[in-house]
From TrEMBL:
<keyword id="KW-0694">RNA-binding</keyword>
<dbReference type="InterPro" id="IPR049560">
    <property type="entry name" value="MeTrfase_RsmB-F_NOP2_cat"/>
</dbReference>
<dbReference type="InterPro" id="IPR023267">
    <property type="entry name" value="RCMT"/>
</dbReference>
<keyword id="KW-0808">Transferase</keyword>
<dbReference type="GO" id="GO:0008168">
    <property type="term" value="F:methyltransferase activity"/>
</dbReference>
<feature type="binding site">
    <location>
        <position position="263"/>
    </location>
    <ligand>
        <name>S-adenosyl-L-methionine</name>
    </ligand>
</feature>
<feature type="active site" description="Nucleophile">
    <location>
        <position position="359"/>
    </location>
</feature>
<dbReference type="Pfam" id="PF22458">
    <property type="entry name" value="RsmF-B_ferredox"/>
</dbReference>
<keyword id="KW-0949">S-adenosyl-L-methionine</keyword>
<keyword id="KW-0489">Methyltransferase</keyword>
<comment type="similarity">
    <text>Belongs to the class I-like SAM-binding methyltransferase superfamily. RsmB/NOP family.</text>
</comment>
<dbReference type="InterPro" id="IPR054728">
    <property type="entry name" value="RsmB-like_ferredoxin"/>
</dbReference>
<feature type="domain" description="SAM-dependent MTase RsmB/NOP-type">
    <location>
        <begin position="145"/>
        <end position="428"/>
    </location>
</feature>
<dbReference type="Pfam" id="PF01189">
    <property type="entry name" value="Methyltr_RsmB-F"/>
</dbReference>
<dbReference type="GO" id="GO:0032259">
    <property type="term" value="P:methylation"/>
</dbReference>
<dbReference type="InterPro" id="IPR001678">
    <property type="entry name" value="MeTrfase_RsmB-F_NOP2_dom"/>
</dbReference>
<dbReference type="InterPro" id="IPR029063">
    <property type="entry name" value="SAM-dependent_MTases_sf"/>
</dbReference>
Length: 429
């Protein structure tokens, strides 16, 4: 397929998502099934246009002066893929599948529009009701932070030090453009690629099956590093999900000591068994029932709450969730976080730590949640992570956001990672 056909396909999918409220992955899959002539490169290019469009779902239509799927598709090519109006006309010339251009492209009036005149949430490409929270969290830099969340994310891997070194994995992936990550000590980064470029399918490789690495955002690796899990410690990963943090912590502990992995959702937890096997991890025990944790009350050195959250920090990877988020979801998540924190606190030994993590940048889920937990549980107080950040990240420590109490914030604009929050809450000894 040429560019025009790919653009038309993406516009069809965007239309389907909008008019039938369809999940992106389903809409893309259905398009592929009903257009079997399209090759894998075509499908990848169409997927890229669709995801890029969803990242900038407000600013493209504003600049085009029309709220249509075509405005989104053309917006992607002109504002994200590096085409100029002239080079785009040339690329689509004679292509009978090329969709009709929005009027502002056809008559050239697009050139006279300036995004700086758009409402702030449109410039930021975030829902209007979230602006106040971004301003509270990022101050003067909020717009740049929001715009960084509207860019493509890199593909990040964590080297499993139980099985391989970073150099060994880098060598094995040398055709992918992989490089050592800037911050995470065992991180590897593969560039996001531009335009129609496909990310390499690294999980289809033998080395992935051998357990040499896991796919994990560098921010998620960094918060796991900040736990500073030590060989021999007794840990609980209370919101273990599929085990991303448990696997990283187990490797940091060199398979020594014990990690108990628990999650209320058995279906989310189940894949951990296969992941642990592949990684050669022997010190993680998965628990399906809360009652299994009874013997560990007041006993554990560290309890990790990687809490359910709105995921605002992951908007680069899942731009569709940006537009589904509403105030009711936020309230529900806050309630779940409060429950998870108070449930998990019971297992921390005196003098031990409760580590609170979210992949959100909203203060209500982070700083405010920590403040209200400490007010309700006066045995706990924030222990600063400033020293840990300096110890682990040395000269790069100034890229982290540390608040006065010593909680840590990561974000695409600051650390080049997903947005994360990390707080160490110490139980009095
Ligand atoms: C952000 S996800 C965890 C991701 C996981 N730690 C990882 O690194 O792959 C949050 C998890 O918390 C679980 N959860 C929600 N409420 C909970 C509670 N009260 N107790 C335990 N787990 C809970 C959810 O089922 C979900 O799997």
């Amino acid at each position: 397929m040429r560019l025009g056909g790919r653009l038309a396909g993406a516009i069809e999918v965007l239309d389907d998502i909008e008019t039938r409220r369809r999940p992106v992955a389903d809409a893309l899959k259905d398009w592929g099934l009903s257009h079997r002539f399209a090759g894998s490169g075509d499908r990848a290019a169409i997927g890229n246009i669709v995801y890029d469009a969803l990242r900038m779902k407000l600013s493209h239509p504003w600049l085009m002066g029309e709220d249509s799927a075509a405005a989104l598709g053309y917006g992607v090519l002109l504002r994200q893929w590096g085409y100029t109006p002239d080079s785009l006309v040339a690329a689509l010339d004679g292509d009978r599948y090329a969709p009709q251009a929005p009027a502002a492209v056809a008559d050239g009036s697009l050139a006279g529009r300036d995004l700086a005149e758009a409402p702030l949430h449109v410039q930021a490409d975030i829902p209007e009701w979230v602006v106040a929270a971004f301003q509270a969290r990022f101050g003067d830099n909020w717009l740049a932070e929001a715009q960084a969340l509207a860019t493509r994310a890199t593909l990040d891997l964590r080297v499993n030090t139980l099985k391989a070194s970073r150099d060994k994995v880098l060598k094995a992936l040398d055709e992918t453009g992989a490089e050592a990550a800037d911050l995470a000590q065992n991180g590897i980064r593969i560039p996001a690629g531009e335009g129609p470029a496909r990310l390499p399918n690294v999980t289809a490789s033998i080395n992935f099956e051998k357990g040499w690495f896991e796919v994990q955002d560098e921010g998620s690796q960094i918060v796991a590093d900040l736990v500073e899990a030590k060989a021999g410690e007794q840990l609980l990963d209370f919101c273990a999900g599929g085990g991303g943090k448990s696997l990283a912590l187990a490797a940091a502990m060199a398979n020594k000591g014990q990690i108990h992995a628990y999650d209320t959702d058995r279906k989310r937890l189940a894949p951990i068994i296969e992941r642990l096997r592949r990684a050669g991890t022997h010190n993680v025990q998965a628990h399906e029932r809360l009652a299994d944790l009874e013997p560990f009350k007041d006993k554990l050195d560290k309890v990790i709450v990687d809490a359910p959250c709105t995921g605002t920090g992951t908007w680069r990877r899942r731009p569709d969730t940006k537009w589904r988020l509403n105030e009711r979801n936020l309230e529900e998540r806050i309630k779940q976080q409060t429950e998870a924190l108070s449930g998990a606190a019971a297992y921390v030994r005196p003098g031990g730590d409760l580590l609170y993590i979210t992949c959100s940048v909203l203060p209500d889920e982070n700083e405010a949640q920590v403040a209200s937990f400490c007010a309700d549980n006066p045995e706990f107080s924030v222990a600063s992570s400033a020293d840990a950040v300096a110890r682990l990240f040395g000269a790069s420590a100034d890229r982290f956001r540390l608040d006065a109490a010593g909680t840590v914030g990561l974000s695409p604009a600051l650390t080049g990672t997903d947005g994360f929050f990390f707080a160490r809450l110490r139980r009095a000894g």
